[in-house]
Structures
1.
Amino acid sequence: MADGTKQYSVFRKTFHVPKEWMRKPEIQDLVQHKYAVAQSEESFRLINTCLTKLGYNADNRSMVHDYLHYMIMDLLDKNGEIYLTENDIKQSENIHKLLLKGLTPDFIIKKKEPRKKTIIIDIYVGDKTASEIKGKYRNFDFFAEFFVVTQHDFQTTLANILPADDIDYLYKNFQIFLVEYHYWRACMKFSRILFNDEESVPIQSFPEITVDQMAMKEQYRSNLEAYAVHVNNQADI
């Protein structure tokens, strides 16, 4: 390009990389998009190798969990919060076994005005409901408040802990991270690099709905309306 800007034939964006990940060369290779300037087969091998070494090659959402965990950790440090991480908890027999009965939340955060209690945070990116996760921690409400942080509601949940500007910063960077994450996952699924403006999946042409289908839909709607009126009519009950 005449203006010296880079042109990549693969999809890539830049996002804030947490300190813990900055220490890992494989993460650096991914977020610096080194695969983008390599040949197709070499590019895929690079993504595959990096994710495998990091333990993120399985489709288990652990990379999404860890991004939230490490970013929240950096923001807690930025705001001078005193806390223990999951690793700290595991290293203390008294805290892990006696106090938490073997549970390992992501963070235990010391109470700080205007918060009246210690805060326990568990980051969850699985398929269970938040209430199922909360149930495990109900016995600890005598000394702590418990919050489940998910990728869908962390803006609301973290409002009790982090300033609004930091939550907004986390939200924006997390959205960009997800774009990159899902791109890497898609490359793994297809076992190759997915290029821009290239048909990765043969595109089908779906036919228009037929006159008969439309007539059946209208008849179904009419029948359902009649049934609704009948159900609502209590005169003969």
2.
Amino acid sequence: TTHTMSTMYLARLNIMSESVVYCSHLLSRKLLLSSISPPTDSSFFFFLMIRRPPRSTLSSSSAASDVYKRQAYGAEKYWDERFLNDGDEFDWYLKWAPLIKDQLEQLGLAPESQILVIGCGNSSLSRDMYDDGYENVTNVDVSSVVVQQMQRKHSKRCMEWQHADVRDMYLFDEDKFDFIIDKACLDCVCAAENSTANMHKALEECLRVLKPNGQLASLSYDWERAKYFEQEGWEQHPTEIALEKPQAMGVPSDLDPNYCLYVGKKR
């Protein structure tokens, strides 16, 4: 058992090492070139931030940093500071087209659908959806900073931007939305402290604001999230759809080659 665990941890360390090399490579190119496309496989960065080797292999300062990061993902202050310090557009995992668009349209997304994007951040997702004809988009984020930034940036588009916590979306009435779209918001809830309780709160709120037969489409790096949909109100089991990760500048990865798109349907 000890040997198996050691092998597993070494594998994780190797993956993290590859991620560091990849990030360093991107940074070096950005310093050398005046223009460079942003990295397309942001899973490297998310994995690097939230997956760590076991505490026994860390120094006390590293372990303390790990605890801090887990607390930070659930804290509004962390995200406010992050968006204040880095206002550049950033998309977790995948952009709107083609994969997310194709899947959501197959699920019944239509231009008249009422859509809620949770944890919108400064992603291009809502803008691209709006420009693609899906104009009934409401966006929420726990960071008031990024909400204000996006309100200014997209003032000519008739979208709604609201400061709200996915665990308590008191701003919205029941049975309001046809679709809720999530890219990494619920992953961040799972990465913070008290993840199980907070995931239940978040999914209860999603159920509350969804119309009957409304759908939550949640894109995740993790294939073990289905258990959270066991609470009353969802259909028996979420659909799990594999969406291929983009190749990041040809850098090979030992990570799972697919993201998981969970689709939960309200009864």
3.
Amino acid sequence: PATSEATYSISRFDFTKATEADNAQIGELYKALFATIGLVFDPAIDSDFVHPRDYFTTIPAAKDPSVNGAYFVARRHEPSSGASYIVGTLGVRAYQFGSKTLFDTCINGVSNAGVKSQLLELATTQRDGSAENVQDIEIISSQDICEFKRMIVHSECRGKGLGKLLVKVALEWSYATAGTPATVDGDCGQQLPFGGFRAALLDTNRRLSAANYLYETFGFVDCGNYNDSYRADRFMVSVKK
């Protein structure tokens, strides 16, 4: 149980060094999230449950190997016992649109004119031509765009600012470039200390009001259903300032 002296920290997580306890604690967080929003586990969709290391850190075939994914955890530390527990998670992975149609759906649903313009400019720069005329799926390559997944904080640890810290460090990592010093502790194995991305996507559920407010606070705005998800009812995007 938590004590009044418990402290908290945010770090990048190394799946290669994960203990059975680490994996079990992360699994319990995932199960709690599923229960909260009424989802049923589907291994075909929820591959991060089955192969989390590959899901968050494997580089897609079309992706520049100089950029990778990252996974962040919030830990609660108990001074009385010396034990620590994972009580929050947020993963970042490189993202590539599955089709031109999904890209168009995403763009057409962007609620902020400035953000929409930046995304179209990014697409135009990537393909060296008009974004409207692009026909292949590499409209925005996975070198430039990432997706936030599994932002979860244990119910007993909410109200302590952990969700805010997780999103803050994930955005800092995602938008940082070479030469930017790391801002969080933790060994990430083969991962680099920066993401180098220029935009970030996420999907969520409107019933998660606290999470939605948090994303809005960090500049995420509404976009269209970029991943053809039937589970989420809100889709959001952020662009690097």
